[in-house]
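Entries read sequence, tokenised fold; example below:

***
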Amino acid sequence: MRQTTWREHGYHALLWLVALIFFAPIIWIVLCSFKTADQILAVPPKLIFTPTVANYAKLFSSSAFPRELFNSAVLSVAAVVIAVAVSFLAAFSFSRFKPAGTNFLMFLLLSIRMLPGSAAILPVYLMYVAFGWKDSYAGMILFYAMFSIPFSVWILKGFIDGVSPRFDETGIINGASWLRIIARTILPQVMPGVIAASIFNFIFVWNEFLFNYIIGGLSTSNIPVALASGLYSNGGVDWTFISALTTVYIVPPILVVYFFQRYLLVGMTFGTVRGEV
């Protein structure tokens, strides 16, 4: 049995230290969610205190919070499903049929994400007002799906390029339709890429603030908008509200990343090693 060296112990200790430094703000905001306002603002900070759930009781008793949490979940899940479905078909077409100007079209798709949101907000707002899409679920889902598609196409095309076209040829020879080939041969092999793209898009939509604030409204406002709207109370920053809402808000992304982290790693490193499956 191999003995663990002092260098490995030191390396692991360093990793734990770096992780604690990065997670310290999250740990602190979670601890603050169980404190009173006076305990949060106490100097020096109180590390030993009597926990209270009054902040969460106040948060969940609010009439707006359940709707905002529901909106965040619906907008995120619906936009991700639509974006990944469309992106997968588009990526398959780019990978297999290689239409004229594929490289330029791929660059054009990705360039949409290069545009700052603040530069696009005015024309998007005017378009949504003209079409009557402002503060509608369909309008917000359509926008988030549109904004998520370019990056998803890039990720999924890289995965599909790694699947040998011989699978397609075998399916065609045996009389399978393109839909059956996609569903039965291609999709299972690129499922890690599909999950990685879904996670990236979910995190983007879940955290998006600017467009929801401008082209959304009371009926479609999400958690980031609620966090900004309820920031101040009684002439100061409401730290109890911020800490409780933030703690609830970060739970879904943490769970998603924890359970699908291996697929997320695959998505972050796609294209580093190329080859057919």
